[in-house]
User: Fold these one by one.
Assistant:
Number 1:
Amino acid sequence: MLSLSKDIYLLNDDAHSNVQTEFNHPRLHEVFAYIVEHYRKNISLDKAAAKANMTPNAFCKYFKQITRKTFMETVTDYRINFATQQLAQTDASIASICFDSGFNDVSHFHKTFKSKMQLSPLQYRKKIMNV
């Protein structure tokens, strides 16, 4: 029934275009694993660079060249994606979702969420619940 439903909505319409070659993938695989494992905590650029066996400056340049985003933009996107899932699937408070997503400040979370999603977290939740 679910697979045949015409009632669908896109949770994230940000088109990601990660241009990676087979050579680059293993180096970034460790970095993405680090992001997935630690996005709810403070993520260190130095630790991510160490995962890629690079200096932080070289890593930043390399990461942006491959992903077309900065390292912190990628972390923020991952956190916002988690927050959108939580807003849609739970009734947890927005402050709770903010901290669970790895943000340390509710006002920064609201500002970042709104800039990425064009809606506040509360507006997003209301829109999802009405669909």
Note: Helices lie at 25-38, 45-51, 56-67, 71-89, 94-100, 106-117, 121-130.
Number 2:
Amino acid sequence: MRAELYNWRYESLAEQLSKEMKKRYFEVFVVHSKEELLETVKSIIPEGVSVSNGGSLTLTETGILDLLRSGNYVYYDRASAQTSQERKEIELKSFTVDYYLSSANAITSDGKLVFLDGNGNRVAAILYGPKNVVIIASVNKVVDDVENARRRLQFISPMNSKRLNLETPCTKIGYCVDCNNNQRICNYFVTVESSARQPGRIKVILTTFESGL
């Protein structure tokens, strides 16, 4: 019964959220399984085009990174970098790709996308550069408003810091503090209100199953 109720809630939420996001000129897709997600990404991104991505647990968990590494795309993979300089060069090349993939850290109930970044390369590419941006996010990331998005980020940031093996205060105590540590990932808080200047450039795939943090 619990699973059925969550499925009902997430599907209802995705349906309503899709309407709100389309008002903001996002192109929106709703998927209900990992298999459907992969097929939807394949339908959006033609083979042979250039692609890259921001850091994301969602992309790893759902098999999207494996798809990008399949050989069917020109993939700028920063994980393949051998040095920090090579990694920086790949990140800069990501601004020129046909499709840039990422997840969102939170989505407001009225359709705004919220991101929190450490280095800024991910949010910078989402805002400007790549011809298309594909955001994949579970509806378990939906919050009432931007202020609640900030609270959600304070909750998940220690877990992301732990996942990345960072030496920050939150990885020691388990909760967020406004630290000045040079490894902190809470540096760039960005809200994308609309894609009105470039309708459809940002494509959002809402999943009704949970993924990421």
Note: The two ends are 24 Å apart (CA to CA).
Number 3:
Amino acid sequence: MTDYEAAILDVDGTIVRGEELLPGATDGLRTLEAAGCSRLLFSNNPTRGSDHYRETLAPHGIDVDPETVLTSATVSAEYLAATHPGERVYLVGSDRLESILEDAAVELTTEPDEAEVVLGSFDDTFSYGTLWSALQALEGDVPFYGTDPDATVPIDDGEIPGSGAMIAAMEAVAGREPDAILGKPSSVAATAAMDRLAADPRNTLVVGDRLDTDIALGNRAGMETALVLTGVTDRADLADVGADAEPDHVLESLAAVDTLL
């Protein structure tokens, strides 16, 4: 038997896929609640704020307090507001992320030559022109961040390119990597999660479907990790996984979390 104070749960691929609830998700959430685990939902979706997941899960009978939800968008906004106050941020990203940044009092600019910070993220209008402007914004030693490393994003009928693909293109033209990726599995993300939970990392369980983000986040922060096979990772992917992304447990779905309690 293992006693957990808290659980950090991925959302897309663990609880939902697109707007659809995954089988067993409700059972798993109820099991954690009955065990007295504090719960934090953490999505690497850079186009959504905390309120979105309350609205998404409410029709399924799952009550979510926005204060117990983080996304790569909200973490990025909080980080930039705290570390680059008053500096002009050039964003390659969505209108929704722009709104989340503005709500956090992050100053934005649409002029590449005015950029004091550059943030790369998911942008479904990404084009040659976008990349050219990003190259101009990244001239010199301007700080360069990314919201999340996810190269693809699961949707109802497959996958679409994600932030990681756009950030990789920006890296290629600028000739340098981002100074930091702010969402999972970064130390910035881990700190943001533990600040919300106020729990001992050694007594915290991370559950998610991605080895390189969810599982790596927990492993790097000294948490216990469980991979669910309801998202982008299957058992074949475990054959060549490195130590940084090797899960402590593999579950068919979130419903099987009861086997760890």
Note: The mean pLDDT is 94.
Number 4:
Amino acid sequence: MINLIVTGSTSGIGWETLKALLPECKLALLPVRNLEKAKKMIDGLPGKEKIRLISMDLSEMSSVKAGAKEILQFTDQVDVLINNAGGMFPAKKLTSEGLDMTFATNHLGHFLLTQELLPALEKGKAKIINVSSEAHRISGDPSGDFSLKKSATTITAYGKVKLYNILFSNELKTRFESKGINAFSLHPGAVRTAFGSETSGLTKGLIRLTQLFFISPKAGAETTIFLAKTTKENLRNGSYYVRRKPKSPSSFGLSRDLSSSLWEYSEEVLSALKS
């Protein structure tokens, strides 16, 4: 039985992932932005007594820190952390802390959550699973604009953060494999969800049109569930998975320099927020 954390668990892929993994759980900790919505969703869910809801807005680093502190009051061991939450937001939309919304929600919030939970993750010799996308392949070299504040469009910003999910996984492997932690990234497939609801205009219209051809959230959760359930010995640490198999990401996704630079930049941003 595992202690599980899933972000973005109240819709789409996250919800299907939670339902599939809950029977395997001793404790399921769910960071959620909307507590009332989450309470209604888990009501009547078999195994709901194993669930603890944690108030957390991944776009606000102060909220992430407070939520991580609450998680550690429930347990000192995490076996599986699934960084699933994400979204596509209008380019140059900022959070109250002055961060790009796409950068904060899709990358920095998960980066900080993972860092805050490291002692518990090390104790559990955890798997960290980061949900990325084949959209990472549209990203060029992001090193000149890790913050995304120069990104011209919603689509280019999203492609970059999906690359960040892969780079983050790579760097976790490099830094923490010796501690027993394994990290993976994955493409869930093109999934029919509420994804893109924060966008507007042409981008929103294109998403709605293409979603007619997308797969169900249940099908989209299959690779995440596979990584969570499969023993580490049968997985490739640090790899990017598509349809439950390792696949080579873009050349930028393989760059050790980029993964290290992104990690250092993320730490610099968090340090600046403290001062």
Note: The first strand starts at residue 2 and ends at 6.
